[in-house]
Amino acid sequence: MDLKKVWENVLLETQGTVSAMTYDNWLSKTEAVCIADDELLVSADSDVTVNVVETRYTELLRECTKKVAPKIRNIKFVSPAEKSRYEGGRYISLEELNEDSIVAEEYYTNFVPKYTFDSFIVGKSNEFAAAASKAVAENPGVKYNPLFLYGGVGLGKTHLMHAIGNFLKKSDPTLKCMYTSSERFTNDLIEALRASKKADEMKEFRRKYRSVDVLMIDDIQFISRTVATQEELFHVFNDLYFADKQIIISSDRPPQEINPLEERLRTRFQGGLVADIQPPDLEMRMAILQTKALSQNQQVDDDVLSLIANKVKSNIREMEGLLTKVISYAHLTNRSVNDPEVVAGALRDYGDDKPETVTIDRITDEVCAYFNVSKADLVGKKKTKDVVEPRQIAIYLVTEFLTTPLITIGEHFGNRDHTTVMYARDKISEKVKEDGRIARQIKDLKDMIMKR
Question: Is 271 helix (H, G, I), strand (E, B) or coil?
Fold first, then answer.
């Protein structure tokens, strides 16, 4: 069965779930482009159709695809303009996939073509990380090895990793360049360890990860805490590093704040170049939205872009999602994207005063900014008064805002035990009643956390 037939069967599966109008207007206009590794790339007749289907029906299509072709694990969407860049639009049969005959795709997989250095908007918040990534792409294994990128969710870490992969694919297609996640690395290892022919599977696992020229691991903070996983990652790292192969790692936090992580891995992550990406300022957010709008052939007024940019300040992906929602809403209602009623209707569920989710990391960041203390010190072992009191206040605020277990709070703040957390909480609780200075600081911080 070729891929075209597979997709026809997938669409047949959806017909019992969606209305005839939905199927005719959206799903029927989609097509499978190719298979890259175990992912199915899907496109449609227009950018708007791609946006609507991706936003509303990805999970449905993924489930239907699993029924038809269980070996396909994921679905990714590409625009009509991009689809010819994948395998020249060639359909790849499932038999080819099952026989592992797509040798080139074993390495240059999962790189989204639109994620390039040219499409990455550079500003003060990310210029260092962008420059470091470009330098690595131009001289892999020579400069900045490993390269460790960190920053909040949706700020562009994955974009830069894909940009490196796409640059290398174009400049030197002979290089074996692999992009994976810490979760997939862990799952691959578990599957190898559980296999009936364990020795053969472990040999294949090691061949897969140790024979590459460039290895990228996304979201390393999720690496399994099991000894076996971190042990295997350590040996993969060493084999590649001492062979002058490039290693690129991303995380939502710097190496010193990843827990639990073996110290020997931590020191290796810190041994190259560590580059952070900060949330973009308003000007940069506007530029990102303008670029996104133009890529969809949409002329969006600055006041609309400004409205969206001011609603989401620390997550580019979420911000772009709001723009896509406005564009799709305008298309579905057959009105202008700049119509105030269209914009209000599209964003009605995203209030102006919607606060960001309160998390232990957000509370930590607010306390660091308020007391001008580095995050490394606040969650570390430093015991000077200028750090200890802010740390105790941070712990107190976490217990006030969240229901996080004391053990987890202790792990976040330098692997302290739960009794230390209880002591800090109770001490600040008493000081709030007795010390006006502490009470004012707590009030200020609570206001800051709630208003963001």
Answer: coil
Q: Are 224 and 186 in contact (CB under 8 A)?
A: yes
Q: Tell which residue, 32, 9, 34, 12, has the closest CA to residue 23.
A: 12
Angle at 379 between CA 373 and CA 384, to 5 degrees: 60
- Indicate the helix (H) or strand (E) that contains 43: strand 39-44
> pLDDT tens for residues 11-62?
988 887 888 888 888 999 999 988 766 778 899 988 889 989 998 999 899 8
pTM: 0.56
What sign for the dihedral angle of Cα 335, 340, 344, 347?
positive
DSSP string covering 207-233 = HHHHS-SEEEEE-GGG---SHHHHHHH
In single-letter form, the type of residue at position 274 comes to: V
Helix residue ranges, H only, 270-339: 282-295, 302-311, 316-332
Q: What is the DSSP string of 226-254?
A: SHHHHHHHHHHHHHHHHTT-EEEEEESS-
Report pLDDT digits (tens) over 317-356.
889 989 999 999 999 999 999 998 899 888 887 755 444 5
Residue 354: the pLDDT is 45
Q: What are residue 31's DSSP bridge partners?
A: 43
Distance separating alpha carbons of residues 114 and 171, to the nearest angstrom = 16
* Residue 417 DSSP class: -
Q: State how far the Cα of 413 lies from the Cα of 423, in Å rounded to an integer.
A: 13
Domains and CATH numbers, the chain: 3-95 (3.30.300.180), 127-277 (3.40.50.300), 282-346 (1.10.8), 360-451 (1.10.1750.10)
Q: What is the largest distance, in Å, between two alpha-carbon atoms of the chain?
A: 76
Residue bearing tokens 């690595």: 136
Which helix (H) or strand (E) segment holds residue 286: the answer is helix 282-295
In angstroms, the CA 99 to CA 96 distance is: 5
Token pair, residue 223, equals 């690496």
CA Rg, the chain, in Å? Answer: 24
Coil, strand, or helix at residue 148?
Answer: strand
Place of tokens 């289907």: 53
Phi and psi for 337 in degrees, rounded to 5? -65, -20
409 closest CA partner among 356, 374, 357, 363: 363
Please tell me the distance from the alpha carbon of residue 407 to that of residue 83, in angstroms, as a whole number. 49
What pLDDT band is residue 120 in, cutting at 50, 70 and 90?
very high
Specify burial of residue 107 (Cβ count, 10 A radius: 0-12, 13-18, 19+): buried
- 216 φ, ψ (degrees, to nearest 5): -115, 125
